[in-house]
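Worked example

This section walks through a single chain of length 109. The input is the sequence exactly as stored; nothing has been trimmed or padded.
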Amino acid sequence: MEESKEYQVIITDIAHLRIQEIYDFVVLNSPQQADEIVNTIYYKSMQLNKDPYRFPECLECPSKSKKYCNCIVKRSFRILYKIENQQIIVFYILHSKQSPSLIKRLKTS
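Given that input, the structure is written out below as tokens.
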């Protein structure tokens, strides 16, 4: 039986900041929902270690040298990450209503 490969998940400072901003915004109207959203974002991010290729490539982030993927969380948020060697780097959390042009500016990170 082949052993499954696990990846190391790294959440960047910018992604942590975005999660805090999301929490600060949602908590104004619903503290319980804010906790749930943040917990789900972190949980889904850490679950990427088992099979990061199960989510589609982020087509708004085309790149010749890197593959950017995204995972949808609760239909409102996207976890944007790249896969490099044995690492998954979560580099941004994006609300589904945010402009894809923001993603294009981030692709150099």
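What to look for: The chain has a mean pLDDT of 83.
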